[in-house]
Amino acid sequence: MEQQHYEHACIDGPLDPMAFIARLADSGLLTDYVVYERDDHWHVAGNPSAEIRVDAHTVRTTRAASDETAVPWTASPWQAIRAALDGLPVVDWNAFGWLAFELADVTKSPPASALAGEGGEEGDGLLAHLIVPRTELTVTEDRIHVRTLEPEITERLAKVLSACSEHTPDPVLRPVTVHGARKAYEDQVAYAVGQIGKGELDKVILSRSVELPFTVDMTATYVRGRAANTPARSFLLDLGGRQAAGFSPETVVEVSAGGTAVTQPLAGTRALTGVPETDTALRTELRRDAKEVYEHATSVKLAVEELDSVGIPHTTHIREFLAVKPRGSVQHLASRVATELSEERTAWDALSAVFPPVTASGIPKQAAYRLIRELEDRPRGMYAGAVVLAGADGSLDAALVLRAVYQHGGRAWLRAGAGVVGASRPSREYEETCEKLLSVAPYVVPKES
């Protein structure tokens, strides 16, 4: 198969990255696309040259309408995903996409057969969707760097940029009520506390959904929400009609091309009000709260054990411990754990070791999965999964999908959870979900007819 090489071009700024991305997303110039913000760089990938879809049994690679291969998987999909990417004819590829919460190693989750048909809230069986784009942009305030297999697109991108100076009216926001189904959620928390008291598990993250009674303008919501949030990563995607826009508070794993792997567990929460004196008092309370510190410390302990399983002996260490990070409407206790990957290990092994993250599942994970399936009324799908940027150079960056709005199949919804441990109070855990939902709910924009 003939190898394909990207052509490179630059479009000079200065520019407003968010204004350009909004124009581009709504222009129709890109079909399926992913926007992934990392360290003040917006990576935009669209017009797939190849797509990889994963269900409970198969990793399916599509290069064209008549060029599709399917590889079965049983114990783990990660090697099949990596092999599918390495087998593509695109030189120096980057892959973008999402992973469902239910996509987990058999060592940490039920057998794959138990997940069949549980591809998330949409129920279509899809557990992951990755693309290798024909066109990829890196957008900063200074310039747009273009990598493309379709050279004619560069001139059209420049036209999109020139249109950014045109005035657009401010979108109309529609208030979303985040308070609802309180008793049902508090009853679930109380039941989980009872299971923890019986020794069934140590921690579980329980979530609840908020249905939106209108179609969402995802691009406008992303722009408004990003202006009001302080995420570790942000993302906007539309793949196969499945849409999401979010402001991730933490990374699942960051792996450099040189083999350094870092994970960033966040656990322990207080509101962030915007009133300095109040926020300082809440931050002090958070650091002194025995329940919150215990919840965080147990999460860090498991993160150390997971990364240590794929690292060179004695290289796993805690880089940061019990810092407080502002994340939109809340503030979290935060730590960072790092290791150097063993020679025979790859970024996909590091992702496998920590996915789904402990801060969105529980301890031990397998027991937490069972309780989540028992108590939550729908599979999670993208919620508590990841949005991923992976490179042919061995690098990988995965953002935890939280603080997001989702849309697919005529439905739109928000979702948030809270970490439950033995000392949890149901009323407080419910309020925590409300605090987290307020990172997104005030910025949702309805789509005009």
From TrEMBL:
One of its GO terms (molecular function) is isochorismate synthase activity. Its cofactor is Mg(2+). InterPro entries: ADC_synthase, Anth_synth_I-like, Chorismate_C, Salicylate_synthase. It comes from the Bacteria. GO terms for biological process: L-tryptophan biosynthetic process. Keywords: Lyase, Magnesium, Metal-binding. Residues 182-436 form the Chorismate-utilising enzyme C-terminal domain. PANTHER family: AMINOBENZOATE/ANTHRANILATE SYNTHASE, ISOCHORISMATE SYNTHASE MENF. This is Chorismate-utilising enzyme C-terminal domain-containing protein. It comes from Streptomyces nanshensis. The lineage of its organism: Bacteria, Bacillati, Actinomycetota, Actinomycetes, Kitasatosporales.
